[in-house]
Specification:
Layout: E1 6-16, E2 21-26, E3 39-44, E4 47-59, E5 62-67, H1 73-77, E6 83-87, E7 108-111, E8 115-126, E9 129-136, E10 139-144, E11 150-154, E12 159-162
């Protein structure tokens, strides 16, 4: 499995229990149906290795997962701090004005007044809010990723249209 065909769903925090379960910290775009997942990919030295799930449960932003062939706390400890990936194709399709964080990295950001601002380099979250980070005029600009500032996302052209208020880029 190629890494570019997957998205990061979380990382293994620590062993959990005595049967080889692990505690997984879930990323915000991670699916909520971990109980139905059969396979995940774990990044081991930049190679995605498939792991089959025996069972999983989710509580808040954490999942408790038992993988096949991992049956001791020591074996589970060997997975600590490794990232978990899922196939992008497995994600549900979103509405036209919504996006997965990793989906728009590299998209151009176009303002109605200022023109081309730059390229999305990162998405940052603060509570329920998301911000698009762009380098513009030798500084980093955080653009709230919600209407009315975010107008549209054109996935085929890889362009995000925004309508920033006067003076926003001067802050």
């Amino acid at each position: 499995m190629k890494k570019e065909d997957c998205f990061k769903a979380g990382f293994i925090m620590r062993p959990h229990g005595l049967k080889g379960e692990v505690t997984v910290s879930l990323d915000p775009d991670s699916p909520s149906d971990w109980e139905t997942l059969k396979t995940v990919f774990i990044d081991q030295r930049n190679t995605l290795v498939p792991y089959f799930i025996e069972y999983a449960s989710v509580k808040s932003d954490k999942a408790f997962v038992k993988f096949e062939d991992v049956s001791t706390p020591e074996a589970a400890a060997g997975l600590k701090n490794l990232s978990i990936y899922l196939e992008k194709a497995s994600r549900p399709k979103l509405q036209a004005d919504d996006f997965y964080d990793d989906e728009i990295i590299g998209f151009q950001v176009q303002d109605d007044t200022a023109g081309l601002l730059g390229v999305v380099k990162e998405i940052e979250r603060a509570g329920m809010n998301r911000f698009i980070l762009v380098d513009y005029a030798e500084k980093e600009v955080m653009i709230p990723a919600q209407p009315p500032l975010l107008k549209s996302i054109n996935r085929s052209k890889k362009v995000i249209s925004v309508n920033l208020p006067d003076g926003f880029l001067d802050i």
